[in-house]
Write a structure and sequence with these properties.
This protein has 15 helices and 20 strands. The relative contact order is 0.16. Helix 2 links the parallel strand 4 and strand 5. Strands 3-19-15-16-17-18 form a 6-stranded parallel β-sheet, sandwiched between helices. It has a 6-stranded mixed β-sheet with strand order 6-5-4-9-12-13, with helices on both faces. By secondary structure, the protein is α/β, with parallel strands linked by helices. 32% of the residues lie in helices and 25% in strands.
Length: 419
């Protein structure tokens, strides 16, 4: 028997399988510097932009992500604040704005977890709310007709800094760069218009050039203004493999090329069974987030194969519209048909992405926060434990099956080189 150990919430989940498997995960690249040293190195060697350009700014906003993204704020913020102080910007003139996108508003009790206890006391921290009209401003439209509705605090700042992780994104291609602010502190109308392009053939995992979603984000970033970014590439231990800082496009693209070497895994055949985890908290906090792991696994599974999706989902599905859209359909094809025939709605788009995976493979879900009725609505089989899921899957496997285990599926880009 071979043991399978996967991240699950803030812990791990175990199972045994009677077949050898291949571990498919992001590269464990040698760390040349400690995470803190690498961030300091990037700040001292910016690409295409400098903090000196915002010297003496009286109102600085630093945008970072909510708890669903593993941005290492506690490592980035202290040296960043030192660099800002060196160009005459004091802490009392700085606001950290939590970019929640269309996720729930981050409550104050999470601020210490996001930025560190000391900084949460010393610096102003606020959360974006995509539906709070009083704190949104309209700045025109992009060339793709996306309404530029952005957080008022960001729009009115003298200087604007964005933090982020360069990670795979299922239809923006790669995250990081301008996405942290354009989507992170965008209003619902902006996010909805941008994400409505997700059915475009170039709006795919790992694709940037010619991807209308990504190109729209970068154009809007230029319109709203981004003075400086700090982006990191993480390995599976969430250590900083590389950090980049500077111009929101130039520095980001350097980071993307580094990230590809870490995040892409070449595979020469599809699998009969994939056991995929979201990487644990925060990426498996709900099914809305865990869907990304399913989509990544579906790239590498055979037509008609099986995916076991492991995600704790303490917050359940995490989005009412996702559930509502799923309730309308009885088959995976009907999910896709309904979506393409209806007006685009954020939240409902997750059902479309979910359905593209269900079309290809049988899905068995291991999730404490999802009850059997919800699993039925989501058109997946439910298992109480990883071992039960494995036992359910074994009966449908051929002799000498090809099996992949993806412990950090949302951060792993399977690159099929010989389908």
């Amino acid at each position: 028997m071979y043991q399978v150990k996967l991240p699950y919430g803030k812990g791990y989940i175990l199972g045994e399988i009677p077949y050898a498997f291949e571990n498919v995960s992001i590269s464990e690249e040698a760390i040349q510097h400690s995470s803190s040293e690498e961030i300091i190195r990037a700040l001292k060697n910016p690409i295409g932009a400098s903090l000196a350009d915002i010297k003496g700014a009286k109102n600085v906003v630093i945008v970072t992500s909510d708890l669903t993204r593993p941005v290492p704020n506690k490592l980035i913020l202290p040296p960043l604040l030192e660099e800002l102080e060196a160009v005459g910007i004091k802490k009392e003139n700085i606001t950290v704005l939590i970019g929640t996108g269309l996720h729930r508003v981050s409550p104050e009790e999470e601020f210490a977890e996001l930025v560190g206890e000391e900084l949460a006391k010393e610096i102003k921290v606020i959360s974006h709310d995509a539906w709070d009209e009083e704190n949104l401003v309209y700045l025109g439209k992009s060339s793709r007709n996306t309404p530029i509705v952005i957080n008022k605090h960001y729009a009115e700042a003298d200087a604007k800094i964005v933090l982020g992780v360069i990670d795979p994104h299922q239809f923006a291609g790669i995250s990081g760069g301008a996405k942290g602010v354009v989507i992170g502190v965008g209003g619902e109308k902006l996010v909805q218009a941008n994400h409505s392009m997700l059915t475009h053939p170039q709006a795919r995992l790992g694709i940037i050039e010619g991807n209308p979603v990504r190109e729209d984000i970068d154009e809007i970033g230029g319109i709203i203004g981004i003075d400086f970014i700090v982006n990191v590439v993480l390995n599976s231990k969430k250590e900083v493999v590389k950090a980049v800082a500077g111009h929101f496009v130039e520095a980001h693209r350097v980071g993307v090329e580094i990230a590809r070497k870490t995040l892409q895994v070449e595979l020469n055949q599809t699998a009969d069974l994939i056991i995929a985890a979201s990487g644990g908290f925060p990426k498996d906090v709900n099914l809305y987030q865990a869907q990304k792991a399913l989509l990544h696994a579906a790239i590498a599974v055979k037509e008609g194969g099986t995916i076991i999706l492991v995600a704790k989902c303490d917050e359940g599905v995490g989005e009412e519209r996702f559930t509502e859209q799923m309730k309308k359909a009885k088959t995976p094809q009907q999910i896709l048909d309904n979506f393409t025939q209806e007006e685009f709605r954020i939240g409902a788009h997750k059902a479309y992405l979910w359905g593209t995976s269900l079309i290809k493979a049988r899905v068995i879900l291991v999730a404490d926060g999802i009850d059997p009725e919800t699993a039925r609505i989501m058109q997946v089989e439910k298992a109480d434990t990883l071992q039960q899921a494995i036992d359910m899957a074994i009966g449908s496997l051929p002799e000498n099956p090809k099996i992949y285990v993806m412990p950090k599926a949302p951060s792993t880009i399977p690159l099929m080189i010989n389908k």
